[in-house]
Design brief:
The chain is α+β, with helices and mostly antiparallel strands. 47% of the residues lie in helices and 25% in strands. It has 2 domains: 78 residues, no CATH class; 54 residues. A hairpin with a 4-residue loop joins strand 3 and strand 4. It is elongated and about 60 Å long.
Length: 139
Amino acid sequence: MLIEKQVKGDVVTSHYNSSNLLVSEYNQLKKELIITFKNGGKYKYSGVPATDYIRFEMADSQGKLLNSAIKPNYPYEKLSDIDVNELTKKINEIKEGNLRTFQEDIKTDMRNLGSKTGFDLVLAKNINDQLTSYFEKLN
C-alpha cells in the first residue's frame, strides 16, 4: 500500500507499507522503474510506461502487480544491494505520522458529531468509512 509519494522533477519516489517492497523510483522521461526490496535488493526495469507505473503504484498489492505486469514485460537489471535500515526507519516514521494524523482527524470528527444543530449523519458515515478503511488496511 502506498503511504507517501514525492515528485521531484521527472522522478516520482513512493514509499510503501508492503510485505516485500520498500520504495519505488520512477523516472518519467527515461521510463525507468527502480524497486528497492526489504532484503536490500534493487532492480531497475526499463521501458515502463507511465500507465503501468501508475497501476503499480496504486495497486492493493505492489508485489502482485510487479510479478504479473512488470517483471514479465520489461527488461531489468539487478543493481547493487543497499542497507535498508534508514529506509525502514523512514517508512516507520511515515506510518506513525499518518496514524497520528488519522487519529487527530477522527477525534475532530467525533467532537463535531454532536454539534449544536443535532446529530450529523453525514459526518457519522464519514467516520465509519474512515475507520472501516483503516481496519481493512491493517488486515
